[in-house]
Structures are given as structure tokens and as C-alpha cells.
Design a protein that fits this description.
Blueprint lengths: L11 E4 L2 E4 L8 E2 L8 E8 L2 E8 L5 E8 L4 E2 L4 E2 L4 H4 L1 E4 L3 E9 H6 L5 E9 L5 E9 L17
Parallel strand pairs: 3-12
Antiparallel strand pairs: 1-2, 4-5, 5-10, 6-9, 6-11, 7-8, 11-12
Length: 158
């Protein structure tokens, strides 16, 4: 006689045609933000010849334990500062709904003169107050900013 096959009593949920095991209490689920969850994004903007980095919560709920990880190291502020390791990206604990934090990356001309990465992938992970974790990913092609012109206008003194 052949030995009886052991069957698992763990439930699984079906996604498409694949069956995935149910998450155990030790594992962590990371989902995509919804219309009712926090939604943290990372952006790089060009404003009057300056590159800016922005961490923004575009969701209706506060975000907690926000971490931004980049696929490449990069420097800013005339090449003097490792920007990917700023506490803004490694230690941000709270960002309210519809709030943002901006910091300057560099003058665009200075950034392009160095061999800094022109394509950056940023992964933002964050939680809501119930502990559910989310992740977003943004891809930035800084090359599109290289040839853009700008005019710096002096504001009159009042």
C-alpha cells in the first residue's frame, strides 16, 4: 500500500489562475493605495532652474512610517550631499493627508554636469493608522529637464 498523501489545512485565496497561500501572522501584506487610504508619492520637479524633491501624501488619511528607497545613490547640493540617505527618506514618521515636504536637490545645471543618475526609481512604503502597509513606485527621467529653458524674474521690493 502506498502511504497516504498529507494535505495542508491552510486556506488559500485564488487570484486569477494562481493559488497563493494565506498570509501568516508573521508575514506582512503590502498593498496598493486605495481611494480611502493614505497615498504617498515621490516627485522630482524643475522650478526656475532648480531641481526639487517632494514627498507628498495625496490620500485622504495620514501616512505613518514613510520610507523612500532609490535604485541608485545620488548627490545634490553641488555634489556635497548624499540625497538618497536624507532622514526625510529614511526616518519620516508622519505625513498628514494632502500634505507635502519639499527639499532642494540641486541647480539643474550642476546636477547635469556631474555623472549623477538621470533615471531614478523611487519606492515609497508607508502605513495607515490601522497598521496596513502600502507601497508605491515612481520612475523619474531627469533627462527631460535638461533642455528646458527658464527665466528668473526678480520680484520688485515692496
Amino acid at each position: 500500500m502506498s502511504p497516504a498523501k498529507k494535505t495542508s489545512t491552510k486556506r488559500s485565496r485564488v487570484i486569477g489562475k494562481r493559488s497563493l497561500p494565506q498570509a501568516s501572522s508573521a508575514s506582512v501584506r503590502i498593498g496598493r493605495p486605495t481611494l480611502t487610504s493614505p497615498h504617498v508619492i515621490f516627485e522630482i520637479l524643475l522650478v526656475e532652474g532648480m531641481l526639487w524633491m517632494v514627498v507628498r501624501n495625496i490620500g485622504p488619511k495620514p501616512a505613518f512610517h514613510i520610507r523612500i528607497k532609490f535604485d541608485h545613490s545620488f548627490k545634490g547640493l553641488e555634489g556635497t550631499k548624499g540625497m538618497d540617505t536624507l532622514p526625510l527618506f529614511t526616518q519620516l514618521e508622519f505625513l498628514g493627508p494632502d500634505r507635502e515636504i519639499q527639499t532642494v536637490l540641486d541647480r539643474s545645471a550642476a546636477y547635469f554636469q556631474r555623472n549623477e543618475p538621470l533615471r531614478l526609481v523611487a519606492r515609497a512604503s508607508f502605513e495607515e493608522d490601522a497598521g496596513r502597509r502600502y507601497e508605491t513606485r515612481s520612475i523619474h527621467n531627469l533627462e527631460v529637464f535638461r533642455d528646458l529653458g527658464y527665466i528668473r524674474v526678480k520680484k520688485p521690493l515692496s
